Amino acid sequence: MRRVIMRAYLALVLLAAGACATSATPEGEPAFHNVRERLSQPTRLYIAPGTSTGEIMASRYTNDGWVAGTTALTIDNGELHAVLDNTGKLAVTGLTLSAADIAIPESVFGKPASLTNVKVSLPYASLANVIWQSDDDAMLTLTLALDLDWDLSVNGAVSPLGTQHLPPVTVTTEMTGAGDHVDASLALDATGELWSWAGLFKLTELKLDLAAATVDAN
Fold it and tell me: How confident is the model at residue 28 (pLDDT cuts 50, 70, 90)?
């Protein structure tokens, strides 16, 4: 008799647990109802190949002085990590970017050369106030102090260059979507000398227009 009672009790406990789990997120209901709810939890957004653009200002010294030109950057991939804190501010806790090689005019070294393994990263988190136009549309202005890492390749020989600590830059950011998907756009313009070599070649401005999105199951 005791075994029958115990089995009946266990069955009731299991049924109650299943009912609680089902009521927390009913089948077919999204885990989050809007972007604001989604960002209340740590959110990863992926920067896919072909979705973002960039350019860098390159100058080389000639007999007639400095000659500047803009070189397009190909953004290979990246990630953005963000979450709303307890005060409602958005914390960007991580940002990484990988870009394709940047060609250097052969006249600088007298040999084929390029900057390789180009990476941009955020060394520490940044907070910003958020302006919500609706629960699914937000605007904010971030101030990010980014690090720039790359290697110098000359005629196939690769030498690591020191990390360049870029001055704080303003990043205009928009976020939109729904609870099951978030899109973000970021626009930044970092000015000032980023790198130079022997008074013959220098990089002086970095512009990025980034598109990031959550990777969600279908």
Answer: low
Claim: this prediction has a pTM higher than 0.90? no
The token duo for 99 is: 């870009």
What structural domains and CATH numbers belong to the chain?
A: 32-213 (2.40.160)
Cα atoms in the Cβ-side hemisphere of radius 13 Å centred on 80: 26
In 32-123, where do the E strands start and end? 43-47, 53-62, 65-84, 90-99, 102-104, 113-121
**How many whole angstroms separate alpha carbon 140 and alpha carbon 132?**
9
Q: According to the model, what pLDDT value does residue 15 have?
A: 42
CB 73 within 8 A of CB 55: yes
Tokens 């007639």 belong to 64
Q: How does DSSP assign 111-122, residue by residue?
A: S-EEEEEEEEE-
Q: Using one digit for the tens of pLDDT, what is the confidence trace for 59-96?
A: 888 888 888 888 888 999 999 999 999 999 999 999 99
Q: How far is residue 29's CA from residue 24's CA, in Å, rounded to a whole number?
A: 10
Distance between CA atoms of residues 153 and 116, nearest Å: 7
